[in-house]
């Protein structure tokens, strides 16, 4: 370990030697000859006392400019006195830091009084609280000073201004007196950002507002800050009263598990760096780096905050006094206490000498060896290698003891990234910025700011202490999971939207903390699937479905006594949960695309059946008994059991009136159909189920929403266009009376068999495909449905062959069954059937995941890297480039069959 020795036998000689090494000390001597004279004649202690007298007297000067000049001259005298004592080793560390802090107190008091005097205000009710090193009498040689300014609104009189405005102006003036850099330099750099919520509060905060803030959303890191709090300027009575109010916030007799876990998590996040290379860094940061001063301070503070509520002896502002109390209590081993005390004294001593070089607020040893040798020489060491080795040994001792603190919890919370993750305080921690950048975040400061706001309770999920503690414990795993997606910025943005939408965070955060796979799944989902991300943001409660999946497979039994709207919401709640689970399983390769299509379709079938029954009951309640039977038929993707996320439903409703209800049936079943469409598509508080498309009913938009079976029969045989007969090939009955359903299917089969002659049929189909290509061209390279050789082409091929093949293959809703039957009848060659089967499987996989993840986004440029990987994996491709090549080949093969079977997409013209 490094040992600091005296530079000379006398204080004046030590300072002279130091000024020959350190440029700042030499400049101070030239600018303050009176101070050097006092040092030479009366000694450093007398010079320190003189500097305090000069600073006190400054408050009585006439003008602000005079006050500023006097304080700056007094500051130089104090710096000379302290440097002389330190370099001569005539005072212990606690005295050195005490002298620096004592001067800061006097200077702040004089600046405040001068500012009040200049505005003609009394100082009653306004005060400044010293925090951090200043509060603990532990200022370093070139320290800035952390304070918070408050005023008691019942006491402070702002004169012509409101108390808040007047107090803030006074504080602003006082800070200017202290920190403005004039020809005489500055007194102290000041920092008021440790006040409550500094981004949205004035410089001076009312004591009432501050009390409410700390009671409601005060964080554990703020409690640690307030361990060191003390009055440094202003109305002492008002300040003591305020500190008494805050005492229960700082010192809690009973800390629950989550508060302790939060402190432990803060400790882990302060510095998780490890490794011999860090310890051997000759240009180490002695304050924030591993094995540095901050670790000694935190070693003490974490235990003070946990045990100090029950033991007054631990409530010391000073680090070393707190360490001694922990040893006396038996909480810290005596040798550990001795090691840390020696290391703290040595590191603080070297820190002072770093700052003596140029009066800069830096804690890092110089990278340049010549400059670093100056620091060594100020410590009384001429051998740079020995100096570097001693520093490294000291830091290793600190690091080992620091890492042993909460060692068991540390093992439970190991995480992959090595680096800082600090979201406490007000400044962006440089190590955290570096760590976030290494994790792939492009704007670390934005991430730090957002998480800081969460910690301040600016979102419902963290308005309780337990919520904030859970967030702190979760953050390392959360950020690493975001990094692993390859899209950390996108994952963070979408997690933010999800997280800020939570009404209460404790349950969700507890789940994520307990279920690491759930956290990974959530982050991946948010990163690569905007559609699911939006769903979760609107309904974060769906996340619970991933934990409690049992019992959710089956449709709910609707409350028969409930009104129609309540029944609609019951089905929506169930459908939301089921749809989310299907999408999540599909996205994470736990459900193959064909099975997902069946799952989406079965879900829609169940919702249609439930809502149709409810609509029938409601219609009967309002318009009398049901006059006959009804069925709901599915066409398109639902008919073929090929739904994707977000698919609409192509439906027809057919009824058969009873003998005594023929007159009332058209009206009754029209009302029934309207209620069913409303039940499926209307937006309620629980969202909507599906978009419903009734345009494939007889006569399309011009026809009734429900058609009688006789009218259905007549229309399909006498009036249906070829494209309507093509649609009928995918008809499937999903709800209603079984016998009527069979009758409707038989009508469809008969109508298809008795289609127009083959030449007219082929002409119509080619004309339709060419018109569709002109009027609805593909919207991008990845429009899998409308592309040349896409799913529409595949369906046209099958539907044409089904129309032309007769009764053996007339109504076969599913694509795979249709291909198999057409191959059996010889309508498709074995080669074409194989090509279409593999093409359908390939394109279905792509479309299922594409629709789930990004909906209608049809250009690959906007696919995330994670989505590209997922698409490639779903189609057994090694990468997205290989997938693109295969996509081109597959669509080309389907296009070739379409050209052969139907014709080209464009005419010669």
UniProtKB/TrEMBL annotation:
Residue span, Glutamate-ammonia ligase adenylyltransferase repeated domain: 22-244, 520-746
Q: Which domain of life is it from?
A: Bacteria
Query: What positions does the domain PII-uridylyltransferase/Glutamine-synthetase adenylyltransferase occupy?
Result: 266-406, 781-894
State the InterPro entries in the record: GlnE, GlnE_rpt_dom, NT_sf, PII_UdlTrfase/GS_AdlTrfase
Q: Which Gene3D superfamilies match?
A: 1.20.120.1510, Beta Polymerase, domain 2, Nucleotidyltransferases domain 2
Per the database entry, which stretches of residues form a coiled coil?
A: none
Respond yes or no to whether keyword Transferase is given for this record. Answer: yes
Alphabetized UniProt keyword annotations: ATP-binding, Magnesium, Multifunctional enzyme, Nucleotide-binding, Nucleotidyltransferase, Transferase
Keyword Cytoplasm annotated: no
For molecular function, the Gene Ontology terms on record are: nucleotidyltransferase activity
Q: Which PANTHER family match?
A: BIFUNCTIONAL GLUTAMINE SYNTHETASE ADENYLYLTRANSFERASE_ADENYLYL-REMOVING ENZYME, GLUTAMINE SYNTHETASE ADENYLYLTRANSFERASE
Name of this protein: Glutamate-ammonia-ligase adenylyltransferase
């Amino acid at each position: 370990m490094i040992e600091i020795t005296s530079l000379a036998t006398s204080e004046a000689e030590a300072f002279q030697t130091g000024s020959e090494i350190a440029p700042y000390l030499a400049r101070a001597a030239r600018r303050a000859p009176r101070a050097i004279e006092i040092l030479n004649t009366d000694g450093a202690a007398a010079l320190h006392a003189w500097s305090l007298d000069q600073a006190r007297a400054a408050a009585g000067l006439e003008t602000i400019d005079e006050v500023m000049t006097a304080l700056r001259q007094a500051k130089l005298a104090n710096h000379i006195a302290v440097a002389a004592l330190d370099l001569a080793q005539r005072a212990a560390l606690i005295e050195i830091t005490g002298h620096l802090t004592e001067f800061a107190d006097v200077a702040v008091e004089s600046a405040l009084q001068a500012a009040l005097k200049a505005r003609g205000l009394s100082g009653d009710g306004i005060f400044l609280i010293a925090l951090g090193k200043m509060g603990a009498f532990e200022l370093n040689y070139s320290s800035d000073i952390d304070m918070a300014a408050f005023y008691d609104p019942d006491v402070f009189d702002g004169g012509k201004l409101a108390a808040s405005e007047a107090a803030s102006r006074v504080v602003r003036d006082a800070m200017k007196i202290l920190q403005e850099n004039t020809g005489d330099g500055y007194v102290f750099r000041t920092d008021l950002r440790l006040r409550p919520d500094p981004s949205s509060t004035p410089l001076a905060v009312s004591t009432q507002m501050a009390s409410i803030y700390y009671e409601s959303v005060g964080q554990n890191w703020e409690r640690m800050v307030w361990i060191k709090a003390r009055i440094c300027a202003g109305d002492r009575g008002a300040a003591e009263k305020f500190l008494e109010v805050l005492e229960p916030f700082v010192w809690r007799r009973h800390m629950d598990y989550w508060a302790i876990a939060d402190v432990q998590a803060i400790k882990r996040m302060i510095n998780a760096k490890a490794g011999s290379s860090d310890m051997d860094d000759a240009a180490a940061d002695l304050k924030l780096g591993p094995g540095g001063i901050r670790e000694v301070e935190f070693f003490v503070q974490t235990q003070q905050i946990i045990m100090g509520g029950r033991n007054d002896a631990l409530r010391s502002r000073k680090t070393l006094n707190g360490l001694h109390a922990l040893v006396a209590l038996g909480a810290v081993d005596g040798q550990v206490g001795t090691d840390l005390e020696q290391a703290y004294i040595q590191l603080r001593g070297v820190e002072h000498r770093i700052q003596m070089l140029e009066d800069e607020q830096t804690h890092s040893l110089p990278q340049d060896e010549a400059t670093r040798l100056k620091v060594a020489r100020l410590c009384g060491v001429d051998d740079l290698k020995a100096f570097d080795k001693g520093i490294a040994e000291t830091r290793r001792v600190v690091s080992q003891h620091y890492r042993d603190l909460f060692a068991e919890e540390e093992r439970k919370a190991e995480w992959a990234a090595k680096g800082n993750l600090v979201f406490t305080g007000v400044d962006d921690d440089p190590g955290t910025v570096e760590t976030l950048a290494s994790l792939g975040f492009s704007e670390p400061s934005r991430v730090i700011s957002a998480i800081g706001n969460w910690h301040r309770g600016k979102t419902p999920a963290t308005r309780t202490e337990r919520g904030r503690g859970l967030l702190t414990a979760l953050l390392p795993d959360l950020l690493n999971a975001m990094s692993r997606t390859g899209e950390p910025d996108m994952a963070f943005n979408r997690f933010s939207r999800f997280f800020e939408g939570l009404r209460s965070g404790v349950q969700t955060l507890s789940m994520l903390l307990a279920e690491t796979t759930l956290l990974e799944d959530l982050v991946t989902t948010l990163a690569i699937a905007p559609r699911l991300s939006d769903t979760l943001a609107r309904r974060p409660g769906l996340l619970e479905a991933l934990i409690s999946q049992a019992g959710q497979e089956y449709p709910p039994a609707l409350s028969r006594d409930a009104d129609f709207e309540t029944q609609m919401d019951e089905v929506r709640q169930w459908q939301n949960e089921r749809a989310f689970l299907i999408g999540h399983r599909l996205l994470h390769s736990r459900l193959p695309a064909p099975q997902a299509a069946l799952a989406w379709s079965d879900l829609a079938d169940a919702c249609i059946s439930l809502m149709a029954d409810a609509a029938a009951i409601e219609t009967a309640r309002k318009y009398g008994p049901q006059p006959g039977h009804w069925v709901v038929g599915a066409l398109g993707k639902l008919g073929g059991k090929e739904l994707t996320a977000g698919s609409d439903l192509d439906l027809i409703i057919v009824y058969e009136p009873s003998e005594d209800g023929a007159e009332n049936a058209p009206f009754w079943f029209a009302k029934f159909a309207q209620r069913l469409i409303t039940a499926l598509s209307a937006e309620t508080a629980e969202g909507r189920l599906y978009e419903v498309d009734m345009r494939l009913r007889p006569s399309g938009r011009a026809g009734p929403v429900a058609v009688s079976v006789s009218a259905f029969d007549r229309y399909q045989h006498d009036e249906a266009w070829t494209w309507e007969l093509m649609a009928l090939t995918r008809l499937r009955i999903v709800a209603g009376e079984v016998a009527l359903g069979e009758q409707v299917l038989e009508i469809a089969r008969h109508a298809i068999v008795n289609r127009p002659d083959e030449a007219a049929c082929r002409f119509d189909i080619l004309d339709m495909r060419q018109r569709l290509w002109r009027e609805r061209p593909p919207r991008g390279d990845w429009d899998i449905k409308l592309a040349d050789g896409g799913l529409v082409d595949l369906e046209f091929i099958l539907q044409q062959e089904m129309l032309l093949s007769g009764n053996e293959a007339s109504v076969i809703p599913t694509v795979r069954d249709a291909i198999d039957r057409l191959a059996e009848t010889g309508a498709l060659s074995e080669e074409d059937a194989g090509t279409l089967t593999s093409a359908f499987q390939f394109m279905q996989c792509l479309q299922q995941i594409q629709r789930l993840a990004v909906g209608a986004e049809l250009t690959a440029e906007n696919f995330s890297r994670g989505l590209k990987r997922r698409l490639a994996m779903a189609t057994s491709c090694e990468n997205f480039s290989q997938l693109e090549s295969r996509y081109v080949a597959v669509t080309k093969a389907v296009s070739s069959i379409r050209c052969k079977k139907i014709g080209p997409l464009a005419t010669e013209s």
